[in-house]
Amino acid sequence: MKQSTHFSGGNAVRSPLDFRGQNLRGRSFKGQDLRGADFSDADIRGANFVRANFTGANFSNVTAGLQRRWFLSLLALSVLFAAISGVMTAFAGILALATLETALANPKAPDSKRKAKGALAFFNGLSIAANISTILQAIAQFST
């Protein structure tokens, strides 16, 4: 990183920061003044630019995105949550089916309708939770 300050007419003038072609993976620029900085051809994967000032900065031909380990971690978590969601939905379906079979086998029992409605409500609730989980996974992947 190259930066220099010179004086012109009594005022300090800051020359732009030069990060051209540098490996800046995982580096934090949090809250820094990066006005006019040149990041061209740099690798900025996983860099933190929260609340940084980029006015006039050059990001041409940069390599950006998640670092490989973060990508693989998110992918593994997504697969795990999808598997848990599938198992929960299957369990709810089996439970609902067993309850409905019991209710249908003895339709004159006083609580058979209540059990059937409860099983269906439980199954629907778990299905909705599984769908919400899938939606949240998609949002998490697309927001990175």
Provide structural commentary.
The structure is a single chain. This protein is mainly α. It folds into 2 domains: 1-65, Pectate Lyase C-like (3 Solenoid); 68-142. The protein is built from 2 helices and 2 strands. Strands 1-2 form a two-stranded antiparallel ribbon. α1 (68-105) packs antiparallel against α2. The protein is rod-shaped and about 85 Å long. The two termini are 27 Å apart.
Taking all residues together, what is the mean pLDDT? Answer: 77
- Total strands: 2
Radius of gyration from the alpha-carbon trace, in angstroms? 28 Å
Which blocks of ≥5 consecutive residues have pLDDT under 50?
A: 2-8
Share of residues in strands: 5-15%
Counted up, domains total 2
Main sheet characteristics? 2 strands, antiparallel
Q: Percent helix among the residues? A: 40-55%
Question: How are the strands of the largest sheet arranged?
Answer: 1-2
Write the H/E string, N to C: EEHH
The coarse overall form would be: rod-shaped
Descriptive key words:
single chain, 144 residues, mainly alpha, Pectate Lyase C-like, 2 domains, two-stranded antiparallel ribbon, 48% helix
Nutshell version of this structure?
The chain has a two-stranded antiparallel ribbon with strand order 1-2. The protein has helices at 68-105, 112-142; strands spanning 5-8, 11-14.
Topology overview:
Layout: E1 5-8, E2 11-14, H1 68-105, H2 112-142
Antiparallel strand pairs: 1-2
